[in-house]
């Protein structure tokens, strides 16, 4: 009798994980970040299957945000499930979620901080995240709604530092089917149904409406757009980095000076990236630096009328003097 292979959805998830780990050295530790939902649970199961075949060690991290009754027990259950899969270590990371930036942003910040600490402590080579193609489509739509630039529209990266997202090209239906085929019972987070969260409204209302009005395949098209936007943004960022090295006259001690004549030669998209790079080098917090700030600084280069300094976050400012753009702690002497 011919050997029967795994369910197609299981095979797809395993293949995605195997390809994402193809370059990892033998005996390295790989951790799956698992909330207990279908996406991350299917990911954890695939890692447990693939890792021994690639001669890798595999573990699991689950984060208890302490935002719901019973969250500690659910986190322990997820860790126990990981242990039953053969994932070791399988740890619960308990975090305190702040309020800065709203509940979604605060929870995300606390979660990633805990994952980073655990990965450092355990000397992990990589942390796998269970984001799918549907998550990518939601991210692109949110970026569009905010009027974000190409970098935001490029969505989530398949790799970013130690983090890897093997499932970005797979639909959420695949992870659900993979769990069902392996008799895994995902936990449905009530927050995923709470319309107070913007992403939930995009998932439950906006994307289905687009599919109904424009036809199937919208999520796939948005994810494809994100991939192309990321390629373009990466190329522009590389150009801007080279241009910054050519334009910068000094980059020492929190004061950056840039040659206006060199900036003025650059296309808008590259010049504004150089200005952002210069502002961050001077000490402006990157998370507080908006497109409005960059456009105001850009006018010092392209529409110079002797205007006063531009105030920037973090107590810094930008001013033009004698053909030089200076970004430093305000007031600039």
From TrEMBL:
Transmembrane intervals: none
Catalytic activities: cytidine(34) in tRNA(Ile2) + L-lysine + ATP = lysidine(34) in tRNA(Ile2) + AMP + diphosphate + H(+)
GO molecular function: tRNA(Ile)-lysidine synthase activity
Keyword Ligase applies: yes
Keyword RNA-binding attached: no
Gene3D superfamilies assigned to the protein according to its UniProt record, in alphabetical order: 1.20.59.20, HUPs
Residue span, tRNA(Ile)-lysidine/2-thiocytidine synthase N-terminal domain: 30-204
Keyword annotations of the record: ATP-binding, Cytoplasm, Ligase, Nucleotide-binding, tRNA processing
Places the protein is found: Cytoplasm
Residues reported in the UniProt entry to bind ATP: 35-40
Domain tRNA(Ile)-lysidine synthase substrate-binding: 260-325
Enzyme Commission number(s) from the entry: 6.3.4.19
Sequence similarity: Belongs to the tRNA(Ile)-lysidine synthase family.
Function, as annotated: Ligates lysine onto the cytidine present at position 34 of the AUA codon-specific tRNA(Ile) that contains the anticodon CAU, in an ATP-dependent manner. Cytidine is converted to lysidine, thus changing the amino acid specificity of the tRNA from methionine to isoleucine.
Stated name of the protein: tRNA(Ile)-lysidine synthase
Lineage per the UniProt record: Bacteria, Bacillati, Actinomycetota, Actinomycetes, Streptosporangiales
